[in-house]
Amino acid sequence: MSTELLAPLDLAFWHLESTEHPMHLGALAFFGGQSDGDRVAQLLAERAAAIPRLGMRVRTVLLPVGGAAWSTAKDFDVRRHVRRIRLPESDFEAHAAEIAGALMEQPLERGLPPWEMYVLTAADTGTFAVLVKLHHALADGMRAVAIGAGIFDQIAGASTAGARTERRVPPRSWLPGPHQVVGFARDRIEEVGRAVGIGASVMRASRFDPWGASAFAAGSSGTRRLGTAVLGLDDVLRIRRAAGGTANDVLLAVVAGALRRWMLERGEPLPGADPRALVPVSRRRPGRAAASGNKLSAYLVGLPVSEADPWTRLTAVCRTMDRNKAEGPGRGAGAVAVLADHLPPLAHRLGAPLAGSAARMLFDVLVTSVPLPRSTLSLGGSPLRAVYPMAPLARGQSLAVALTTYGGRVHAGLVADAKAVPDLDRLTAGLTDELAALLRAATG
What we know:
Elements: E1 3-5, H1 8-16, E2 24-31, H2 37-49, E3 56-60, E4 68-72, E5 82-87, H3 92-104, E6 115-122, E7 128-135, H4 141-148, H5 156-163, H6 178-205, H7 214-217, E8 225-232, H8 233-243, H9 247-266, E9 276-282, E10 296-302, H10 310-327, H11 345-362, E11 365-369, E12 378-379, E13 382-390, E14 399-406, E15 409-416, H12 424-443
Parallel strand pairs: 5-6, 9-11, 11-14
Antiparallel strand pairs: 1-4, 2-7, 2-13, 3-4, 6-7, 8-15, 9-10, 12-13, 14-15
């Protein structure tokens, strides 16, 4: 694969980026045991170099107008993408989270393949962590996992061998037959009808008076802070069994309760209208996680922070998610990402600044779940101990919450504007407190 046009949603993410709003995903992974930092960096470089997608960069094209394409970087040097940083021995995890937040502030260099990896080591102890940054144009959450999994011992050999196998496509005429013309026209008419319906839903859902909590109404500073929390998966599942719904419903209710606790501790009045969460939903078919192009839709969920009772908050979240699922991820205001598939490339290039500014009118906080393989993972023989996913902040957003399950625990990575949310540690602590409150309600 040497050249490939960016899919519409990939192109949207590419043009949405600005210096203050880099559009990359991230993950901070901690490993057990001890290992030499230089050896880990060399191993990462070797495995990353064997993943073809990581050798691709974005270049502009003449046609379609406003479009861009992935092309193989002929001067690709993996050493420009894998770096080592030494941290103090004391409180290694806190220092690693701090440096991860600072590194997430920095946009990826657009002339290079858009990804970076950092090996974070504690001086002379052999303790290490790895920070991964992937541009959202390169991968959505599921594809990021499929790409990133190639660095692990258990997957590296199999994934790289499979990635190098390309299916040959037989040649065919570029002139469409009459049946193809009719089919194409019918498909385009149906797509336009869907786009109009989704666009109308988005307009109806837009607000000109967004949620007024001071931290979320603050102007973006371009700074980033990372907060981390670990929740017991067994506790989440016990609550789900008692309440019904899904584990993701429980986690959304945990986020809602944590926001309420955080606001009350700050002495802020609770908002008259509940904040809205944008909850991404994958549109990938099973077994297609490695397919190129972002495949996303989303649900809009009101987080009931004004409700005092934790169980009532959970019940409200379950009802809202049931309505969203009944409507489906391809319909309604939350499916705004689907609109990207119906817009020409030039519209993405010219309309990105407007679209980025409009996100604030649609939702207040991003809450996303990222699936990981269920098997135990390791790097260079060191077992993966904890992993905290990180999502980008849209223009006008001050908080994004990403969740993933690994090793019987739910790991939460909270990315916040560092100036708007200087007390992020209070919010992360609220996640643990809210889960405990829900567990008490579930067990009587």
